[in-house]
Amino acid sequence: MQSYQKKTPTPPKLRHSLSELPRAAIEGQALLLTLPLLRSAAKGDNHPVLIVPGFGGGDGSTLLLRKWLTSQNFASKTWDCGRNMATYRLRSIADALNFRQEMLAKLNRRVEQLYAEYDRKISLIGWSLGGLYVDQLAQEYPERIRQVITLGAPHGDPRGTAAWSLMQRVYRGKLSDPDLERGIAAWRTSDKPSPRTVPTTVIYSPTDGLVAPKEARLPTSAGAAHIAINASHCGLTINPRVYWLIANRLAQTEGKESDFCMSTKPCWL
């Protein structure tokens, strides 16, 4: 089996990583200032929208986004799977893959619950690691998923993220495998079958301090819409431009989704 890449991917630029929190704070302030203007964003049809937090986060980390989506007539829902973090030490890529499958199974049960409750397809929004979950789930169970939006998800090589080193420190392991390249290939969502049958929107940031822009994208053959927004990784769920884009995507008529039209972005953004 040929390894997919010989050279270790380049992580985000250091200046972007170090400025993550200050930039997120500015984005949060911008959100508060623009909330009155965001009321003019696209309105929903009250279909269920499930939001999945990033690594280490729980439902509290997506609270503001959920409340705003509710105000825009989307039935925003928590993922109800606790904190997105392993309670045991991850010593290898195999351990990390097992953890991901465990969380994916929990998420699938939550989607099944909402599908039975609403009798409608579910839209999924996944932030960071949560984006990998929703993308994989949509590929495996497209009959229950209406649309997928990922926010700064590391679709590519995890070594191209600052989170790779963080996970090693948190779990005091090296996240190494006897065959590291094979483990990395198994982790990558971009290597899964494409094009995707569920409409997929990839929102990423060229200035992301945790996920390198190259690793946040899917290949062209995946048929996903890619939208670049200058934002911090931590601020992707509190960035007013991201809110506007999410509403634009979710409000599309089911089965008639199209590429994002930049002319729909208001001048104040």
From TrEMBL:
<feature type="coiled-coil region">
    <location>
        <begin position="97"/>
        <end position="124"/>
    </location>
</feature>
<dbReference type="InterPro" id="IPR000073">
    <property type="entry name" value="AB_hydrolase_1"/>
</dbReference>
<keyword id="KW-0175">Coiled coil</keyword>
<dbReference type="Pfam" id="PF00561">
    <property type="entry name" value="Abhydrolase_1"/>
</dbReference>
<dbReference type="InterPro" id="IPR029058">
    <property type="entry name" value="AB_hydrolase_fold"/>
</dbReference>
<feature type="domain" description="AB hydrolase-1">
    <location>
        <begin position="98"/>
        <end position="159"/>
    </location>
</feature>
<protein>
    <submittedName>
        <fullName>Pimeloyl-ACP methyl ester carboxylesterase</fullName>
    </submittedName>
</protein>
